[in-house]
Amino acid sequence: MTKSLNALFTKDILRGYEMTTELNNIPGKQTARISERPARTHMSRGQVMKVSLIMGKILLKSGAETSRVEDTMMRFCRNHGYEDINVFCTPTVIMLGDEEHGGPGLLCRIRSRAIDLGLIMYMTDLSYNNLRWNMTYDEVMDWIHHRVDRARPYGKWTLCLATGLGSACFSVLLGGNYHDFLAAFINGFIATVVIKQLAGIRPSAFWENCLGGFIIGAVAMLACQVDKYCTASNIIVGALMPFVPGLPFTNGLRDYIAGDLLSGNSRIAEAVLLSLAVAIGIAIALRLWVWWGIPV
Amino acid sequence: MTDLNEYFILKHFVFAFLAAMSFGVLFQSPKKILIQGGLIGAVGWVTFIILTKGLTYPSYIANFWATVLVQLLCEVSARIFKQPATVFNVPAIIPLVPGLGMYQGMRYIINNDYAYGSNIWITTGLDACSIALGIMLVGGVFRALRLRKMFLPR
Questions:
Q1: DSSP per-residue codes, A204-218
Q2: Are B53 and A175 in contact (CB under 8 A)?
Q3: Which alpha helices (H) appear in chain A, and where do they start and end?
Q4: Surface-to-core class of residue A228, CB atoms within 10 Å of its CB (0-12 exposed, 13-18 middle, 19+ buried)
């Protein structure tokens, strides 16, 4: 388990966890509401909104698409009988509020995202089953806390090995031979190890991809020097696969089709920017190789 | 047309399975659904290979049909294993997703070859559009038929 990263993740998500008593004093809770149904749960309006916001935050940080985040949060609120709560979500911000004058409004800013399918699974589970489980606010928060603590089941070195294996398999799928397989394995492994080691200083995604591209280009040229059966383009193509932004681009188009235009814009812009970063890194590596006069 | 024999298809199946599975690990997918995601991804990639290399379809049509097949399998296995469909979908779509085109187009544009770079980008955009369309189409059909109810009791 990566202790430090996990602690960062947990601390960031559950920042407001100790606010249990404070939440009962949200202004507007005592006033009668036209659209308020008889309570089906133990939770007050403020508590439902808080749990819903934390669910959305975890989902968005785990890389879920916008429509899924909004659906899950709305479903949680509706299941608890609060039909007038609205959600607005883009890849960087979640807003949650209702249509009353002076009602509560919660807002949350998301700065970093990393795909984590396990957390998406747990949160969807919670939003479908919360009524049958019939939990109080503290129990729900304990449940979420427990799941977030046990998130990220694979350690750092497993991740690096898996990235290497994925890169190697892609280099064969896209036309390489078995020398390329080995070289791409080493290449992907080294690039991921370096990036994971530098994760402590929190570089932005642009610089991470730029550095990844640079390392991939350099190691690929080195492998071609060592083994004459290797082809540089095949190794680069395979080892790049974890870095190129194919999934953000497709998710952006999915957001467009689902009608979330703002999220689609930002995801496609992110994809173009990341591909620019990778291309710049590789171009620098190849240009330096030629500039130093080493024959290719 | 090319060397599309049983050996070729088997090799691609095995390597696509390994690739999709290791990307499942990279995306922190739970251990009990790694194998299923890898198998679905391998089926999608082999469909894509057969359609492009064997039947010489354009790349976006092959992508569309492969994605439709992948998403069908994802929705069915979501009902069987009682998990949301995204969990199977994200690793399985990885071999089809046109990330490489994004990089190559940008590389040619950096190297002053604007014409070929934008050519690659338009192809990439078409591929990504057809993938997104396939996912939304099958997901929408499953949602409209209210098959979601099978998800609730466990």
A1: -HHHHHHHHHHHHHH
A2: no
A3: 3-13, 45-61, 66-79, 117-133, 137-149, 156-173, 178-197, 205-226, 232-240, 246-258, 261-291
A4: exposed
Alpha carbons A264 and A272: distance in angstroms, whole number: 12
Q: 10 Å Cβ neighbour count for B144?
A: 9
Q: What is the ipTM score, two decimals?
A: 0.87
In the structure encoding, which two tokens stand for residue A172, read together? 């064969």
B window 29-88, beta carbon within 8 A of A: 29-31, 45, 83-84, 86-87
pTM of the model: 0.82
Backbone Cα Rg of chain A: 23
Q: Does B26 lie at the interface with A, CB-CB under 8 angstroms?
A: yes
> Rounded distance, CA B45 to CA B89, Å?
13
Cα A261 from chain centroid (whole Å): 19
Shortest CA distance from A270: residue in chain B = B102
User: What is the C-alpha R_g of chain B?
Assistant: 17
Give residues with Cβ within 8 angstroms of A169, minimum separation 6.
A181, A238, B15, B16, B18, B19, B22
Q: How far is A246 from chain B (nearest CA, A)?
A: 4
pLDDT tens, residue by residue, A240-288: 888 888 888 888 998 998 888 999 999 999 998 998 999 999 989 888 8
